[in-house]
Amino acid sequence: MKTAIIALLLATAGSASAETLTVCATDKTCRFTGDSGIQAAVDAAKDGDTVLIKAGVYHPTAYRDVPFQDLALRGYVVIDHKRLTISGEAGSIIDGKTGNPSIAFVVQDADVAFKNLSIRDFRYAEEEDKIYDGHGIFAINSRVRIDDVMMERIIKMGITGRGDSLIDATNVRLLDGHLGVWLEESAHARLRNMVIRGGDSAAIGAYMTSSATLSNSVIDGNTDDGVYAKDHASIVVTNSLILNNKPFGVNIEGEAHIVVARSALHGNATDFSDKVTKGEGLILADPLIDVAYRPKAGSPLSGVRDPDLNRPIGLDTEGDK
């Protein structure tokens, strides 16, 4: 009991002293300004602080290399051994089209929440070398929460979990990139209300002993499988739409395991590879949805709810009831 009270007091004290460090794109009255302002604010922040990114466009004009295995992760913003929130105002854009090829955010041995950000057009200098660039958020042995984030045209991986990372992603859009969510080693991702669309690789790729749960999400139009697991990885998919992917909507190699239940699959070149476990409540007919993935009149999704979670199939707009 005494230990619990001390922990509670420490947590309360920490939250009371937390500060918000504001970054502006051009306003010189901000303490942190310009393309280098986000990293400067992160460096100045203490555990529990929030870095608030004001509206504007920020480009990676500088970087830091983070060693990882035999690679260097070239990070525009590097968050190392800190517990922070990175929050954007409406109109805050992290844009990798110009400046140095890099990763938007590298998170190492840290606990970070990302909120309300737009990350776009991050690219690589060389497609295959020992420098990792062209990624969105790259987590190593970290706890990462991502909410209300848009990533567009990320030329490598949108969200990456390596080592023992734990990733919670909600209300995230990964559009027109390469591989949406990439997991290796023993990383785990909980993914809800996601749209991963138009990638030239898989929407979700899990390797080694990594794992993921995907719910109330849309996997649409990816060209190297929708959901993919290899080695001893495992993925559970429920209440989701898996549409228009090729060569498989859901694919397994090696000793991996994938379970798909209470979901709709349609328009895929092939819905399932042989070893996928098919649970209850699968709909393999045209779901009759509009461009926002909402059921139209006569949709087989209308009125269908998961009896365990009381959730519909597809994007969940009802919140956490």
How would you portray this structure in words?
With 321 residues, the protein is mainly β. The protein has a single domain (19-264), classed as Pectate Lyase C-like (3 Solenoid). It is built from two helices and 28 strands. The chain has helices at 2-16, 37-44, and strands at 20-24, 32-33, 50-53, 56-58, 64-68, 71-80, 83-88, 92-95, 103-108, 111-120, 131-132, 137-140, 143-152, 157-162, 166-175, 179-183, 188-192, 195-197, 204-206, 211-215, 218-220, 227-229, 234-238, 241-243, 250-252, 257-261, 264-266, 277-278. Strand 5 and strand 6 form a beta hairpin. The two termini are 32 Å apart.
Helix and strand element order: HEEHEEEEEEEEEEEEEEEEEEEEEEEEEE
CATH topology: Pectate Lyase C-like
Principal-axis shape: globular
Tell me what portion of residues adopts beta-strand conformation.
35-45%
What is the CATH class designation?
Answer: Mainly Beta
Which spans have pLDDT < 50 for at least 5 consecutive residues?
1-14
Query: How large is the count of helical segments?
Result: 2
The SS-based structural class is: mainly beta
User: How many angstroms separate the termini?
Assistant: 32 Å
- The name of the CATH superfamily reads Single-stranded right-handed beta-helix, Pectin lyase-like
**Mean pLDDT across all residues, rounded?**
93
CATH architecture: 3 Solenoid
Radius of gyration: 20 Å
Number of domains: 1
What composes the largest sheet?
18 strands, parallel
Helix content: under 10%
How many individual β-strands?
Answer: 28
Fold blueprint:
Blueprint: H1 2-16, E1 20-24, E2 32-33, H2 37-44, E3 50-53, E4 56-58, E5 64-68, E6 71-80, E7 83-88, E8 92-95, E9 103-108, E10 111-120, E11 131-132, E12 137-140, E13 143-152, E14 157-162, E15 166-175, E16 179-183, E17 188-192, E18 195-197, E19 204-206, E20 211-215, E21 218-220, E22 227-229, E23 234-238, E24 241-243, E25 250-252, E26 257-261, E27 264-266, E28 277-278
